[in-house]
UniProtKB/TrEMBL annotation:
Domain of life per record: Eukaryota
UniProt keyword Coiled coil present: yes
One cellular component term from this protein's GO annotations in UniProt: cytoskeleton
SEP domain span: 36-87
Species of the source: Sitta europaea (Eurasian nuthatch)
InterPro entries tied to this protein: NSFL1C_SEP_dom_sf, SEP_domain
Recorded GO MF terms: ubiquitin binding
UniProt subunit comment: Interacts with GNA12, GNA13, RND1, RND2 and RND3.
Annotated function: May be involved in the reorganization of actin cytoskeleton mediated by RND1, RND2 and RND3. Promotes RHOA activation mediated by GNA12 and GNA13.
Gene name in the database record: Ubxn11
One Gene Ontology term from the biological process aspect of the record: proteasome-mediated ubiquitin-dependent protein catabolic process
Keywords, ordered alphabetically: Coiled coil, Cytoplasm, Cytoskeleton
Protein name: UBX domain-containing protein 11
Predominant localisation class: cytoplasm
Compartmental location: Cytoplasm, Cytoskeleton
Length: 87
């Protein structure tokens, strides 16, 4: 696993979505700015954790798909059900 390359691709994806930017959230009395909550990605020597999910070894097919999506320049497809409008 080339951790440096994965981190480079994650930085590129974060830049695309405007890391640290705010969104306008409607309220009952108007609107307010809200920061989008990040999805955490923890890389370990033998696997990953995405968000608040369970630890997954690199040999797990879902882990391989997640990392392949990132390496291909896409957000992990496993996040689409939770974030249908993008992350």
């Amino acid at each position: 696993i080339d951790f440096d390359l994965i981190l480079e691709h994650v930085k590129d994806l974060n830049w695309l979505v405007g890391e640290g930017s705010c969104e306008v959230e409607p309220t009952a009395r108007g609107a307010r700015l809200r920061r989008a909550e990040p999805v955490l990605l923890a890389l370990y020597q033998d696997g990953i954790v995405v968000g608040h999910g369970a630890f997954r070894p690199y040999q797990h097919p879902a882990t391989q798909q997640c990392l392949q999506d990132i390496m291909d320049g896409y957000f992990p497809s496993e996040l689409q059900p939770r974030y249908p409008d993008g992350i």
